[in-house]
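chain below, 97 aa
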Amino acid sequence: MHLNTDPAAPPRKPCIRDLAILTATLLPPALVQLAPLKQLRRRVREINATHPHFQEETPLVLAWEQQRRERLRGELHVAGRPHASAESSLHAQPVRA
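prediction:
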């Protein structure tokens, strides 16, 4: 029986190159912005398990997305029919060709 007595490797610092690869391949910005946070956290855990060299970068992507959503909370609207004020202002201006 052999006991591993080697000290644990110190945690690595995030690498900008790995962050660029991560966001270009496994966590593209469109996926990060559209996925619910619960699914995004699950995806981050999955990436950490299957690609351990991204373990330092995935928390950064998750934290930045949480901050982005916090900043934009309540300011985004679903596109559809324009509001009454916007519609009336469009019709108030004559259109000239």
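Residues 44 and 59 are 8 Å apart (CA to CA). The radius of gyration is 22 Å.
thats it, cya
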